[in-house]
Amino acid sequence: MEWFTSIPFVQDIVILFKPALYNMYFALVSIPIGFPFAIILALGKNSRNWFLSSISNAYIYAFRGSPLFIQFFMFYSLSLAMNQTVWKPLGLDGLMLNPLFIGPLVLILNTSAYSAEIFYGALKSVPKGEIEAARSVGMSKWQEFRTAVWPNMMRLAWPGYTNEVVFLFHATALVYFTLPVINDQKDLMNKAGELFEKDYNLFLHFSVAAFYFLIISMVIFFVFNKIYQYLTRHLNTGRRIKINPNYIR
Q1: What does the alpha-carbon distance between residue 156 and residue 152 come to, in Å, rounded to a whole number?
Q2: pTM (2 d.p.)
Q3: Distance in angstroms (rounded) separating the CA atoms of residues 160 and 141
Q4: d(Cα 115, Cα 205) in Å, to the nearest integer?
Q5: For 28-73, what is each residue's pLDDT tens digit?
Q6: SS3 of 86, please?
Q7: With 0-12 CB in 10 A as exposed, 13-18 as middle and 19+ as buried, what is 193?
Q8: pLDDT at residue 243, rounded to an integer
Q9: Where does the chain have alpha helices with state H?
Q10: Which of 29, 37, 144, 242 has the fewest beta carbons closer than 10 A?
């Protein structure tokens, strides 16, 4: 067994396991909060209320129109500027300057904007006939949304939202490129870079990091495919999300 553990690739897999948990943490915290926020933004953008629609549109445009790297940098710089005057008096300086808080916060704000546009497109594509059928039987607005709009919106948006979740997981690699590393808080790319500085073996260390990203992405596709099969169970039990890489976001 010693010969197996002495293989450089296997050693890197063991070393990079803990850093991979940080990337998973950022994604697992961001997705459950970003999802409902994105739904609210999509409904706000679709609202007939001018104020709600304008606010939602402005938010979506701002976060989709600026690079995620800059968003990390700006939020950390703002938090740092407010440290002495706001966070320290409130006793929040340890939290508001910690990447484990700022990282998920920025990812939530970013992914909710992209996801909201996906859900908005699905919302506009809901078959009008089903909405009219719900109204014809006397359903209330809430019943209409719950029985006709929501199921169709989720079914139509899910493949695109799956891609966004994978993009979000990949984006976790940017957290420690912009935010300070505290103690041993090192993610996959950060740790791989540290290993590279020791032996300059570029191919080995970053290949193992890419291997982790690939495996976890496959798990995400598998889980979300199962959800998609559940959402489309009444249409075709064999429907699957096809893994079709989209190189332009």
Answers
A1: 6
A2: 0.89
A3: 27
A4: 32
A5: 999 999 999 999 999 999 999 999 999 999 999 999 999 999 999 9
A6: helix
A7: middle
A8: 56
A9: 2-5, 8-15, 17-46, 50-64, 68-81, 88-90, 93-96, 99-124, 128-136, 141-144, 150-171, 175-178, 188-199, 202-231
A10: 242
